[in-house]
Amino acid sequence: MSGTDPGEAHLHRLVLFSDAVFAIAITLLAIEIHPPEHWNGIPHLLSLMAPKLAAYAVSFAVIGIYWVSHRRIFSRLASANGILDTLNFVVLGLVALLPLATELLWEQVGGQAYPVYVALVGAIGLALAATWGYAAFIGKLAKPVPWPEAVFILARVAVLPGLMCGLSFFSIIYPWGWALMAALVGGFSLLGRWISRLSASPAPDTTT
């Protein structure tokens, strides 16, 4: 691959490796689910497995959201270096713990695992935000992006997935939480579009 920028090739390999870790983590979620030894009919089976299936659904969504966020962030990068590797490994190491945290959810008694799980999800968001923050503001590894948009990406990655995870558990008990979650996602989406349009708007001509 003569003529290929080493930093660009490095970035490509890093993305491939990261995709593999996300895929393994999301696969392990299903592998850890085992049917009960004794059940009588499908309704009884579903009632017995409801906690496991609910935890699986939430974790599947969490990993999927973080994978999409990871892909969007890395699509904005032009190169990679060793520091980015280290920060990305922190993200992947935390993601790889999600199957264990998911198992804790259905084995816990009295809800003790919920704070641990939400804290892990929040830590992944902060680690991913740190990765983008380094790439965009310190390492200068990102493609040209307006400063307001770069800051919005940082805030969205750090805050939104953790909030959505917490609201998912909240919504299982209080169904109106789903409406709150939809409003949160819609609000972030509209804000992101507004910032993108604002950043793309040409500056007013003051020469006349």
TrEMBL record:
<dbReference type="InterPro" id="IPR010617">
    <property type="entry name" value="TMEM175-like"/>
</dbReference>
<feature type="transmembrane region" description="Helical">
    <location>
        <begin position="150"/>
        <end position="170"/>
    </location>
</feature>
<feature type="transmembrane region" description="Helical">
    <location>
        <begin position="114"/>
        <end position="138"/>
    </location>
</feature>
<dbReference type="GO" id="GO:0016020">
    <property type="term" value="C:membrane"/>
</dbReference>
<feature type="transmembrane region" description="Helical">
    <location>
        <begin position="53"/>
        <end position="70"/>
    </location>
</feature>
<keyword id="KW-0631">Potassium channel</keyword>
<keyword id="KW-0407">Ion channel</keyword>
<feature type="transmembrane region" description="Helical">
    <location>
        <begin position="176"/>
        <end position="195"/>
    </location>
</feature>
<feature type="transmembrane region" description="Helical">
    <location>
        <begin position="12"/>
        <end position="33"/>
    </location>
</feature>
<keyword id="KW-0633">Potassium transport</keyword>
<keyword id="KW-0813">Transport</keyword>
<keyword id="KW-0630">Potassium</keyword>
<dbReference type="GO" id="GO:0005267">
    <property type="term" value="F:potassium channel activity"/>
</dbReference>
<keyword id="KW-0472">Membrane</keyword>
<feature type="transmembrane region" description="Helical">
    <location>
        <begin position="82"/>
        <end position="102"/>
    </location>
</feature>
<keyword id="KW-1133">Transmembrane helix</keyword>
<comment type="similarity">
    <text>Belongs to the TMEM175 family.</text>
</comment>
<protein>
    <recommendedName>
        <fullName>DUF1211 domain-containing protein</fullName>
    </recommendedName>
</protein>
<keyword id="KW-0812">Transmembrane</keyword>
<keyword id="KW-0406">Ion transport</keyword>
<dbReference type="GO" id="GO:0015252">
    <property type="term" value="F:proton channel activity"/>
</dbReference>
<dbReference type="Pfam" id="PF06736">
    <property type="entry name" value="TMEM175"/>
</dbReference>
